[in-house]
Amino acid sequence: MIFVEDINFNSWSKGMFCKQSLDMGIGQFFTILEYVCSQTDTYFAKVDKDYTSQICPNCGTHTGKKELDVRVHKCLECGYEQDRDVAASLIIKQRGLEQAAVQLGLGGNPQDRAAPRRGRCARG
Question: pTM for the full model?
Answer without folding.
Answer: 0.75
